[in-house]
Amino acid sequence: MFKYKDFLENKGSYRWNKLFWKNSICSHFKKVFDKEFIFENSKSTTQNNNFIKIENFVTDTYNNGKLFYDGNPIISGKILSANKAFRIIQEDPNEFDIFYSKFENESIHEIKELVIILTLTKENHKLALNDLEEWFKELKN
Amino acid sequence: MNHRGRIQSQGGGIEKSENWAKNSSLTICEGKIKLSGLKADHPKKILKERINAFAKLEGFMNNANSQGGVSGPISKSYPVLNHKNKRIDLEVQKGQAFV
Questions:
Q1: In this structure, how many other beta carbons lie within 10 angstroms of the beta carbon of residue B92?
Q2: B75/A58 CB distance under 8 A
Q3: pLDDT at A43 over 80
Q4: Which of A43, A95, A110, A131 has the greatest number of beta carbons closer than 10 A?
Q5: What is the ipTM of this complex?
Q6: pLDDT at A110
Q7: Residues above pLDDT 90, as percent of chain A
Q8: pTM (2 decimals)?
Q9: Partners of B91 in the β-ladder
Q10: Domain-by-domain residue ranges, chain B?
């Protein structure tokens, strides 16, 4: 039922989990907004320079460069043309079971953000992508 | 000020925070004092409900300290189990914390 269930114990699984989010967000946005999206610092194979960059929003590494490896956040980004950001926090399914929560936040980082807290099931993943689509709906124009 | 941030407790009618704005990095000791101050600001029953979320935040502060601290921008939210709208937040807007 849960994807990447061992993401908090297995660093390899954690990194695949992050990549899964990056790829699925870009792929979903391309489908619904009919534009190419790319996360900042990603290795791109696209030949199209007309893409929308999802810029780094909050840091998920310590000062020594190591990842937090705690899913908090598992992925984040901001899209400057929408002047909005998002964070997805992935919780431990052993503790939270099936869990989905979201809130909008005026963070001290001076940009409106959508925060989604979930355990990663197929249904919650779909719900999160739909909530992100709604959050960035002005990109449809 | 070059080092700014806050920890806050949200939801369920609670909105309490401890902020910092300093010219030097927030040390782990100062962070723990802020955390203790925030916890002490909660009625016992509400603190009990949020104790796991506070413990996770404290765990992160300790991990950060052992890895050389953290630098902003950082946002972390710790949900309260079985209470979808209640959470503890950490935000480091700029500068370093938990060194």
A1: 28
A2: yes
A3: no
A4: A131
A5: 0.95
A6: 82
A7: 86
A8: 0.95
A9: B6, B75
A10: 3-97
